[in-house]
Amino acid sequence: MLKKALSAVTWLCIFIVAFVSHPVWLQKSPKRKTPGQLKVAACCEEVKGLKAQIANLSNLLSELSQKQEKDWVSVVMQVMELESSSKRLEVRLTEAEGKYSEINNQIDIMQLQAAQTVTHTSADAIYDCSSLHQKNYRISGVYKLPPDDFLGSPELEVFCDMETSGGGWTIIQRRKSGLVSFYQDWKQYTQGFGSIRGDFWLGNEHIHRLSQRPTRLRVEMEDWEGNMRYAEYSHFVLANEMNSYRLFLGNYSGNVGNDALFYHNNTVFSTKDKDNDNCLDKCAELRKGGYWYNCCTDSNLNGVYYRFGEHNKHLDGITWYGWHGSTYSLKRVEMKIRPEDYKH
Ligand SMILES: [Ca+2]
Known about the structure:
Blueprint: H1 2-21, H2 35-116, H3 129-134, E1 141-145, E2 156-161, E3 169-175, H4 186-191, E4 193-194, E5 200-201, H5 204-210, E6 215-222, E7 228-233, E8 237-238, E9 247-248, E10 252-254, H6 283-287, H7 321-324, E11 332-339
Antiparallel strand pairs: 1-2, 2-3, 3-5, 3-11, 4-5, 6-7, 6-11, 7-10, 8-9
Helix pairs in contact: 1-2
The chain binds calcium ion.
């Protein structure tokens, strides 16, 4: 609008100047100086003055339009800056949201540790994730089980599944990223290894301690097509180290079709440096994991993590023979336990 008005004014000025400075267009060329011509001569100074004013005006106009352009550029710059800072804010908001649940867990843990200092009876004790669930901790994630003199248990970082089938599950094994090697020795399998948020083995000593009450085992599996299956076992027990962490399982239930862990029932644990299996072969070396190897496997949940299709020539992948056979390595596995008498 402003530009339009300015250009209209410019044209009007030019028209006036033209009319005033060249009235001769409307007259015949005079032969002698008339009084009119004298008047025109007298006007010259006035015309000059007007011309100067017009020049000033056009200068002013061009200055104005330059200034306008500068203003426009600075407005555009400001808008762009606002946009980028709003994007930065969005990113920070997402980060903050991500941290929210973790902070929530931290608060839970602090409350828990405060509560733990006044815990003296076994009814109040924190054994595992099911104890936490009973105390209304309902967010799945990492918790620190406090050390307990009464139970004789050390501080232990665990990942609790508070949602699946009523929650209260303490995860003892997870395979999902392939970033952690499970071809570890006896000591590593005893104390545990890996990353609690990623792939890990909780440790035979911890699993043994947690399974001293009647315990239920749940194995969840996912293949590379996104299909999920599970197997549950009642009366899961892991014996102590003197008994080589022997595995005991009760009844199977689930939807994976074929129970591929029962073959490993009543079998002791083997690693690459401790061949306790029931075979002439060294199953832990052949199957590249630590497991309750019989002779050797019907399942190999601690085997090598292979991406889809990489495994078909080997027998050392993460397998469950009763579902996809011996040459299909699964995409994701989680093993989790909770007390048999757990109420939810
Ligand atoms: Ca052997």
